[in-house]
Design brief:
Layout: H1 14-18, E1 21-26, E2 31-36, E3 54-58, H2 61-71, E4 76-82, H3 86-97, E5 101-106, E6 113-118, E7 124-128, H4 141-149, E8 151-156, H5 162-172, E9 176-179, H6 191-196, E10 199-203, H7 210-220, E11 225-229, E12 235-239, E13 242-246, H8 261-274, H9 279-293, H10 306-314
Parallel strand pairs: 1-4, 1-8, 2-6, 4-5, 8-9, 9-10, 10-11
Antiparallel strand pairs: 2-3, 6-7, 11-12, 12-13
Helix pairs in contact: 2-8, 4-5, 8-9, 9-10
Length: 318
């Protein structure tokens, strides 16, 4: 069976054959082209010589969350639209390599792609190709409902067309999480995700008052747990009405790229949540995995495994 048809291939059908997966990841599949630049912002010039090379690899937000969860030993299924193109083949190969179930529905507009400019300090600037989507794109309700009800949890990325999937997902009663990334607290696009999820992740980078935004999410939506990551300043955790600060963890190696750190945080937090750990422990797991992700070069797709996560968490804070 061709992997470009959008039909399930092993282990894609495992979720439906066995009746259970741990997490369904919805959306966020694609490829990134990585370019290391001498500084950010990049001053205007007619040309730059890139000695480190320009590399394209599979891995956007949904792929990285799925990869992080799978590395922690959970059974993962990923649902998204992919093109019949070389970029789609890279995404399919990534999932096969890591044993992640993938249902790839046809996307005639092509596989989602982006260019990441990465500075010497690991910060990045992402340029997203919005032409790789169509206004009428939808996930078939039967497929979406079957995969969601086969899962213990659903993580919803904010890529199109996931917003249209939210009513179907909430009707299943399966717990939901989402990552709003660098939401400014005002953009209405993010609100359906913020108010439909039980667990909400976001970055504090664009928030003037993280606590106010976090409490508004709880007041207006379903969430009882909201996490705002703040890079080297750690994170804010709002759980059961109480706001606490989560210290940052010291990366185990030099920081080379921040790409995927938020996805790694979310994956490790969800691992802890599904294991029945309290929110504070889940947030510590997230901080550990996020710090590790910052040491992984942008050209690689890698994630912390369960043994290393638990061993690090059992030791003193670094």
């Amino acid at each position: 069976m061709s992997t470009r048809t959008g039909e399930a291939h092993a282990p894609q059908t495992d979720a439906l054959r066995t009746g259970r997966t741990d997490v369904l990841v919805l959306g966020g599949a694609g490829v990134d082209t990585i370019i290391h630049v001498p500084e950010l912002p990049l001053p205007y010039a007619d040309s730059y010589m890139i000695d480190s090379g320009i590399r394209t690899r599979a891995g956007q937000t949904g792929d990285f969350v799925a990869l992080g969860l799978a590395a922690l030993g959970l059974r993962i299924h990923h649902l998204d639209l992919l093109g019949d193109d070389p970029e789609g083949d890279l995404v399919r190969a990534l999932h096969r390599e890591h044993g992640i179930g993938l249902t790839a529905l046809p996307q005639p507009a092509g596989t989602r792609r982006a260019v990441n400019l990465v500075g010497p300090d690991g910060r990045r600037l992402s340029l997203y190709d919005t032409s790789r989507a169509r206004p009428g794109d939808r996930f078939p309700e039967e497929t979406l409902g079957a995969l969601a009800t086969a899962a213990r949890h659903v993580h919803v990325t904010i890529t199109q067309p996931c917003a249209e999937a939210l009513p179907v997902l909430t009707a299943t009663g399966v717990p939901l999480s989402t990552d709003l990334h660098d939401w400014d607290g005002e953009n209405p696009y993010h609100e359906p995700f913020a108010y439909a999820a039980d667990v909400v992740f976001l970055s504090a980078a664009a928030l003037a008052d993280p606590e106010r935004t976090m409490r508004r999410i709880v007041e207006r939506g379903r969430a009882r747990t909201v996490v705002a990551t703040a890079g080297p300043d750690g994170a804010y955790l709002l759980a059961d009405g109480e706001l606490t600060r989560v210290p940052a963890e010291t990366p185990p190696a030099p920081v080379v790229d921040s790409n995927g750190a938020g996805d790694a945080f979310a994956a490790a937090f969800l691992y802890g949540r599904l294991a029945g750990e309290p929110p504070e422990t889940c947030a510590r797991y997230g901080a550990i995995a996020g710090a590790y992700a910052c040491t992984v070069p942008a050209s690689r797709a890698d994630a912390m495994d369960r043994d290393r996560l638990l061993r690090t968490a059992a030791g003193p804070r670094r």
